[in-house]
Amino acid sequence: MIKIDNLTQIYPSGKGIFNVSFEVKKGEVFGYLGPNGAGKTTTIRNILGFSNANEGIVTIKGIDCRLKSAVLQKSIGYLPGEIAFFDNMTGVQFLNFLCEMKNLKDLSKRKELIDLFELDATGRIKKMSKGMKQKLGIVAAFMHDPEIFILDEPTSGLDPLMQNKFMKLLAEEKKKGKTILMSSHIFEEVDKICDRVGIIKEGKIVAIEDIVSLKAMKTESFMLRTSDMNDYDLLLSENLEVEKINGSTLIVTMKDDYAHLFSALSKCHITSFEVKEQSLEDLFMKYYGKVVANE
C-alpha cells in the first residue's frame, strides 16, 4: 500500500534521511520508532508529498506521492505531530472548512468522533488546551473515513483516558482493514496495536522487525537487595548479567534459565526480591545501544 524506496533528503545542516526504504502492507499497522530528530517526520512529509526528496520515490497504491499528492489526499487521514490551525476559527468552523475542501457531505462519522472524544468544538481554537486541539486534529483526520492513516505522535497531549479511547479507535480501524503508519515514542501503544516496527536512527533505518519477534527478544529483570556486598561478585562469577545500582541493590537480567538463577541466588544473602519486567521501551533502548556500539 505504501512503498518508500531509497528515500534521501538532506537539509543544509547535513541532517535528514538517508536511503530510507520500507513498505507498509494493506491492512497493516506499521510503527515508526525513533527518538526526536531521527527522521520520522521528514519521512512522513515525503509520504504526503509535502517535501522534495533529493533521491528516491514514495508511492501509495502505486501512485507517486509527490506528483499526485492532491489525488491521494482523498484516501489519507493525516494527523501531524505539530498541528497548525486557523486560531481565530472555532473548532466547528475549522471542521466545516475541511469538510468543504474534501466535499464531505455525510457528517455522521464526524459527530461520532466528537462524542467519543468529548470534544467541545464550539470554542475558538486559540483558547483550546493542547489536549483539546489534539482531539480536534484526530476528528479532522478520521471523519472522512479514509483507507490509509498517517499518524505522527497521535496521542500527544491526550490524557490516559483519551489515549485508551484512541487506541480502541485504531483497533476498530485495523479490523476494518485500514492501513496505518504510526510514528510514536510510547512503546505501550506500539506493543498493543502494531504488526511490524521500523526503527530509524540519525536518518537511517537500522531495523525492521515484526512485533512478535521484537517481543520475543524481551528479557526479565529482577531487583535484589542483599546484606552481603560480596554477592555482586558471586553472581558475576555465575555468568549472570548483573548491574549494581548501589552497594546493596542489584539488578539481574536474564531470558529463561530460571534454574540457574535460583541456584545462584541460594548462595546469596537476599533481603528482598522484586520482578522488574522489561518494557518494549527498555528493549528498544537496549537494541538501539547495540546498534550504536557496532557502528
Question: How would you characterize this protein structure?
Answer:
With 295 residues, this protein is an alpha/beta fold. It folds into 2 domains: 2-210, 3-Layer(aba) Sandwich (Rossmann fold), CATH 3.40.50; 219-277, 2-Layer Sandwich (Alpha-Beta Plaits), CATH 3.30.70. It has 11 helices and 14 strands. It has helices at residues 40-47, 69-72, 91-102, 108-116, 130-142, 160-175, 187-193, 211-216, 231-237, 258-265, 280-294; strands at 2-10, 16-24, 29-33, 55-60, 63-64, 76-79, 148-152, 179-183, 196-201, 204-210, 220-226, 241-244, 249-254, 270-277. The strands form 3 sheets. It has a 6-stranded mixed β-sheet, sandwiched between helices. The protein has a 4-stranded antiparallel β-sheet with strand order 2-1-4-5, with helices on one face. Strands 12-13-11-14 form a 4-stranded antiparallel β-sheet, with helices on one face. Strand 9 (196-201) and strand 10 form a beta hairpin. Helix 4 (108-116) packs antiparallel against helix 5 (130-142). The radius of gyration is 23 Å and the shape is elongated.
Strand order of the largest sheet: 6-7-8-3-9-10
CATH topology term of the largest domain: Rossmann fold
Shape: elongated
Task: Just give the CATH class of the largest domain.
Answer: Alpha Beta
The average pLDDT score comes to 89
Number of strands: 14
Number of separate domains? 2
Query: What is the terminal separation in angstroms?
Result: 32 Å
Unreliable spans:
291-295
- The sequence of SSEs as H and E is EEEHEEHEHHHEHEHEEHEHEEHEH
Count of helical regions: 11
CATH level-two architecture of the largest domain: 3-Layer(aba) Sandwich
CATH-wise, what's the superfamily of the largest domain?
Answer: P-loop containing nucleotide triphosphate hydrolases
Rg to the nearest angstrom?
A: 23 Å
Strand content: 25-35%
- Biggest sheet overview: 6 strands, mixed
Sheet/helix structural class: alpha/beta
Helix content class: 25-40%
